[in-house]
Design brief:
The complex is a heterodimer.
Chain A lengths: L1 H12 L13 E10 L2 E15 L6 E8 L2 E8 L5 E8 L1 H4 L9 H5 L2
Antiparallel strand pairs in A: 1-2, 1-5, 2-3, 3-4
Chain B lengths: L3 E13 L6 E9 L2 E7 L1 H4 L3 E8 L7 H10 L4 E8 L3 H4 L7 E2 L9 E7 L4 E3 L1 H5 L35 E3 L3 E13 L4 E5 L9 E6 L4
Antiparallel strand pairs in B: 1-2, 1-12, 2-11, 3-4, 3-6, 4-5, 7-10, 7-12, 8-9, 10-11
The chains are: A alpha+beta, B mainly beta.
């Protein structure tokens, strides 16, 4: 019962935001708003989405990339105003990855 | 004491601040509409308070004496009745029996005190109940989660107030100075920043902050 009410209220509070359909295994670019003094700019983070967690307003996703031989992971709240734009570059099929809800096996595979 | 509402804890979620994108953890509270069911004056009762009712229920859910009370007042039958102490008789002048109180009495950004019944933990040891450190786990130690010494030879008794193992939780707890982040009046919903005592679906009293 209370879960239903939470879902309804989260729906009301969810900001209008265009989010493309993407799933773990897809290669995505996330544009994050950054404040440098007075100026605001977008920073791009490109990598493989390895997990989506949570539901509704609380949903987050994790993006992993290998930067100079070192694995880097960032977790973003899906509805955060700081996440300005998400772009899907390549789908999982084209990435030649096994279909998994959580792609944690990639951590052991490379760097 | 200040005026407030009786409500129900629905659960937790988060919202994002538009200004800096920070995440604010919030409790969803369904507060009101409450009806004033009784007014007590210092002259008559020795103290000042108003009694408010919350959550309408089917008639068959209440016993006959309770139903009679609501019938007399001309109000719908309600599940929860709570008394709110007020400072003096002047404050009470604003309220009439049968008056409807809604979330309108609060404003966004305001601070509130929330009272509820904490989640029961049963009989617990001192480590969980009073955050004692306990003893070493290894190196031949045989005192792992024991309280240690509880007193000396003088006085030859245990002093009152000594923290020991016992029942934890399931008691009345008030959390002060919680900020109201958002109010949705059409659904009687208040979003309060931080934690509120008790489990989801527990009844709480949400009052204007005493110390702000």
């Amino acid at each position: 019962m209370s879960k239903k009410i939470i879902a309804e209220i989260e729906k009301k509070l969810t900001p209008q935001k265009e989010i493309p359909e993407f799933w773990p295994g897809d290669e995505v670019t996330v544009y994050v708003k950054l404040k440098e003094g007075e100026k605001e700019r977008l920073q791009a983070f490109t990598g493989t989405c390895i997990a989506r967690k949570g539901t509704g307003l609380r949903e987050t996703f994790t993006v992993r990339k290998v930067s100079y031989g070192e694995g880097v992971e960032r977790t973003f709240p899906l509805y955060s105003p700081l996440v300005a734009k998400i772009e899907v570059i390549r789908t999982r099929e084209k990435n030649k990855l096994a279909p998994r809800a959580k792609m944690y096996y990639l951590k052991e595979k490379g760097a | 004491m200040k005026i407030g509402l009786v409500g129900k804890k629905i659960g937790m979620t988060r919202i994002y601040r538009e200004s800096d994108g920070s995440v604010v953890p919030v409790v969803i509270v369904k507060a009101g509409p409450c009806y004033v069911t009784s007014i007590k004056k210092t002259v008559d009762n020795g103290y000042t308070s108003i009694q408010i009712g919350f959550e309408e229920v089917l008639e068959k859910k209440l016993n006959k004496p309770m139903l009679g009370c609501f019938k007399k007042l001309g109000l719908p039958p309600m599940k929860v009745l709570r008394e709110l102490r007020l400072k003096n008789d002047d404050e009470i002048a604003k309220f009439d029996i049968g008056q409807k109180l809604t979330v309108d009495i609060f404003k966004e950004g305001e601070y509130v005190d929330v009272t509820g019944t904490s989640i029961g933990k049963g009989f617990q040891g001192v480590v969980k109940r009073h955050k004692f450190t306990g003893g070493p786990a290894t190196h031949g130690s045989m005192s792992h989660r024991a309280p240690g010494s509880i007193g000396g030879t003088t006085p030859p008794r245990v002093l009152k107030g000594r923290r020991m193992a016992g029942h934890m939780g399931n008691r009345r707890v008030t959390v002060q100075n919680l900020q109201i982040v958002k109010i949705i009046p059409e659904e009687n919903i208040i979003l309060v920043k931080g934690q509120v005592p008790g489990s989801s679906n527990g009844y709480i009293i949400i009052r204007k902050a005493l110390k702000k």
